[in-house]
Amino acid sequence: MPTMLTLQAPGTPVWERFWEHRLSDAEIRADPVLSRWARAAQAGLRTDTDAHPQGPPTGDDTPRLERALAADSPFSAFAGAMASAGLSALLCDGNGMVLRRRADLTVQDALTAARLVEGASWSEDVRGTNAIGTAIVERVPIAVLGAAHFERANHGLCCYAAPLHDATGTLVGVLDASGPIAMAHPSLQAAVLGASTAIEAMLASADYDAAVPGGLEALRRRVAMIGGSAFVVERSGRVRLANAEGRRLLGDRERVGQSLMRRLGLPTVQGGTRIVGGMRLEFEPIGPTSAPWAALVRVEPRRSTPRPRPRAPAVGDAFAAIVGSDPAIAHARARAQQFARSQLPVLLLAETGTGKELFARAIHAASARADGPFVAVNCGALAGSLLESELFGYGAGAFTGARAGGQGGKLAAADRGTLFLDEVAEMTPAAQALLLRFLEDGTYYPIGEHRERRADVRIVAATCRDLTSAVLEGSFRSDLFYRIRGVAIRLVPLRERRDLGELADALLVRIAARYSDPGAPRISAAAHRALTEQPWPGNVRELRTALEHAYVLAGPGGVIEPEHLPSNEEAAPTTRPASRAAAEREATARALEAAGGNLSAAARRLGVSRSTLYRLLERHGLRGE
Question: Facing residues of 488 across strands?
């Protein structure tokens, strides 16, 4: 992802000396704002220009941006986030004409007065120095803050813009976030860069669909299956795809793609083989025969010694901790075993407490990454930009309260290993965009830093929400959904399992081992029946806690009876609900009452997600705040 140049106004004395022509050419060239003002002044523009007329879009590539305006597009998600934050989002054509604006109601009048409206031109040759127009001229992301704008009327704005390129490197549009100068914040840079990357990925996908049978996804699968290092690099120097060996070869070096372009001259490559740096590179051009804009590159060391791959443990050993003979659990376990050694991302669909992390750790332990780190992140526990800084890390002084030396993120910690993203559906739109960008080619930028980082990470994600519905509702990106759903595995809740007794016995053995008890207590038949009558909204986690409670009361080597199991304060064990449905309703109603009707608090009491609680409320005709 590119970095963003930030233009801030020079001090008053410098501003006066510029307009009074008392600065030398060298002084002007040395200042990033004055040098750009000089470009506008030399074009004959005035700082007090009247309002500019509106007109129809003029860019030749405007039709290509129509997909970006769809309800499920990256722009739609970005625009919603900006409007919620009190800002505006704009999508412009390649000439700087505003195609679409979405803004918070509180800033619409001010933006309209500044002509940040659909149909208005913000090209630099019309408006002077501004984020949209200057990003087009310089082909780089730019933030223009306050009085750094050339026109006086725009001195109250902060604007962050990023040019949009297709896979061929052609500039086709600009994405912008604008608002009052008081709203300026470094986090807006990451939001704009992340969203622009997602839009560019969508444009690139269309280009690859037209150039390669099966499109980008077919090419992605092909690259993943190639033995040795392989990657797809574009004319612009961007490495679009790389397999695991290719990512290791490219490493964390900056601008490796651009360097490769200079050394190999990709625009003129028509295929064939080259020897570079002791490596044999085979090229397969992508795009028109006369002017390919990308190439699939296979790399073979000239004098290579096969490097032994890390040995993964036996698959059966890795999954030994997942106990149960229930057909649904057996199917999930077999499916996880089958895909553990692949490079595909895994999506675990399950309620809270069903053992998602246990499955994720088993998949990691049975993979070729077993010698690497396993890093878990609960996306639902980190609000807003905290998740972004937790995942991607941040540089020194990136935001108020940041550590003086910055902090590495979970991606860096999980390099050469597995990153487990629990409650992935709770990710913010900005974090979704940044994660999608990372999944494209393994590169990312820590918040507030300008040096590209690279990590070789396999993603295992989990959610208790219906992601398909979340995609349709617009709360979760469809492109990210399809990237993390390399293989989907459903883990059934405890109430649907037929092997609860077997599971309880196994859990009790482990509990006894933790207490250094050589002989685990036995569960009586009556206690087994009592266990099967419970709804277990907290699933295996709740069962394990209940069994430890019973173990403590029964004592080492004892027999667990129904009275040893935890009972609700309001009801004795002898008054347990007669049916599982009744028990489920009673537990839900009790949690709702104890939480004062607050759904989030009730969900925490039950140990379930909010979406699961909603289903329980609807199923039993209950209501909360």
Answer: 347
